[in-house]
Amino acid sequence: MSTFEGHIREFPDIQVDYFRTTQATASRRPLACFLSHVHSDHLVGLDTLRSPFVYCSMATRALVLRLEKYPCRINFAKRILEARKQTYKHLKHLLKPLPLNTPTTIELSPGNRIQVTLLDANHCPGSVMFLFEDDHKAALYTGDTRLEPWFVNSLVRNPCLAEYTAGLRTIDTVYLDTTFIERDVTFETKAEGIRELLQAVAKYPHNTIFYMRAWTFGYEDVWTALAKALRSKIHVDEYKMRMFKSLSVDATGGPQTALDPVAPGLLGFTYANTFHDGCLTMEEAHNGTPVRIHSCEKGLGYCSAIRDPTHPIVWIRPVVCRLPYGRGEVPEVGAGGCGEDLNKETDLEVYGPDEVARLREM
């Protein structure tokens, strides 16, 4: 769970991944804001933000604008609400997308400029790190990042970081998530975790149906691996499909139209005038064969395939890591500690001093 309050000491005129007023910003409002990714613990206060611009990746912008809070989307699905209520839709003109690996100069005020570069964070669709620079200082904000060996090597080769790896410049501060730094645990790589999962599901009979508890963004590689290994589509609800379709400029277009590399594999793409299916579907059966993998909405009582008592169901529950000496597992409460962004049991708002003061006045 992110507890960062958004302040970059080297660049006090900006705020990152936290959009409420704090003691530091009460007398000095930020001139620009930055959003690293779509997980809810990094969106604190964004729904009430009125200014300034918020810079993010193209994929993050697309996802954020279509986010719906859990009660609203469930009530719409049950036809209690007549229209969708997209929480951040009003920020359409405030969210400004930037390309990755492209140093971009932003003028905060006359004569006050910073350069920002978005770097892939290896976390979830659209997730980025921010490299903030001026002529004298540099700070790297990682957001939530998965620093596996291959990924660290890719950063070393990134041309936007070449002057630092060559020793010509120094990054003054790295703002790094330290959620698990005090725990005596070792994290598997994503590849190791997926390999273990595939070995486990391969032991079950061919008529077994698997329910993958994918309640937030970040399980796309797991979906892809399961779909390929089991030769099956993945049944998702309409809301999940809508969210991932936002990652394509045109859901029937080619890979070049995708806002994130995961989009063609999930949604499909057109090649040589032929549409190639992605692994996600809203149908419980595909070509007459029942879908073996499900990540559909649990708040509506699941789909008929999961409710059918004659189907052998295996529930896949992700874990963050295993504790040493057989002391159990750390359950996944959402990638990045964000809770259940796609499937929530409850919807909890945490209010700051400004909101409490307004409630008292009322």
Automatic annotation (TrEMBL):
<keyword id="KW-0269">Exonuclease</keyword>
<protein>
    <recommendedName>
        <fullName>Metallo-beta-lactamase domain-containing protein</fullName>
    </recommendedName>
</protein>
<keyword id="KW-0540">Nuclease</keyword>
<dbReference type="InterPro" id="IPR036866">
    <property type="entry name" value="RibonucZ/Hydroxyglut_hydro"/>
</dbReference>
<dbReference type="Pfam" id="PF23023">
    <property type="entry name" value="Anti-Pycsar_Apyc1"/>
</dbReference>
<keyword id="KW-0378">Hydrolase</keyword>
